[in-house]
Write the structure tokens for this entry.
Amino acid sequence: MNQGSKFTNHDYENMDAFLNAILDDYMAGTITKSQVTGGLTQVMTAMAEGNHGEAVNWFEQGRKLIRECA
């Protein structure tokens, strides 16, 4: 991350929970492959650009955000 931003242990826990939740939702048929890849693209882009706040928001709210993407 640029600008000295670092993820906390809590952020990593939220990231793991986010990834597990969207994989579970996909396997259950609740969300589509396109929604999963779109959400992951958003997270990866935020991280690549050093946008710590957006990445953390996706870790915390991503499951909801993905479901809103149709």
Q: What stands out?
A: The helical segments are 9-27, 33-48, 52-68. The CA atoms of residues 12 and 29 lie 26 Å apart. DSSP finds three helices and no strands in the chain. Residues 32-70 form one domain.
